[in-house]
Amino acid sequence: VYRGVLERIEALDFDVHRVVAGDSLQSLAWSEYGRAQAWRAIAEANGIDDPSRLAPGTELMLPAAEEVPH
Predict the structure, then answer these.
(1) DSSP per residue over 18-46, as a string?
(2) Which residues pair with 15 in a beta bridge?
(3) With bands split at pLDDT 50, 70 and 90, how would you rate the model's confidence at 1?
(4) Which string of DSSP letters, residue by residue, matches 40-68?
């Protein structure tokens, strides 16, 4: 049972970013993907419904660039 879960987790391709004061989803999208408009992919991957409320210390999954719609 656990092996299947672990294999699925390992197959996911993402980086993790720890939010610091001043971060925004738009700035993270720009630095990660070169497109501030890609912030929605980060929000969706992390279940964020209010992008203006990022708490410092929160860890965000950043999807692989090839998984972000252009």
Answers:
(1) E--TT--HHHHHHHHHS-GGGHHHHHHHH
(2) 62
(3) very low
(4) HHHHHHHT-S-TT-PPTT-EEEEE-GGGS
Phi, psi of 10 (to 5 degrees): -65, -25
Q: Return left, alpha or beta for 46; rule: phi > 0 is left, psi -120 to 50 is alpha, else beta.
A: alpha
pTM of this structure: 0.79
Q: How far apart are the first and last CA of the chain?
A: 36
**Rounded distance between C-alpha atoms, residue 56 and residue 70, angstroms:** 28
Q: pLDDT for 28-49, tens place per residue? A: 999 999 999 999 999 999 999 9
* Surface-to-core class of residue 4, CB atoms within 10 Å of its CB (0-12 exposed, 13-18 middle, 19+ buried): exposed
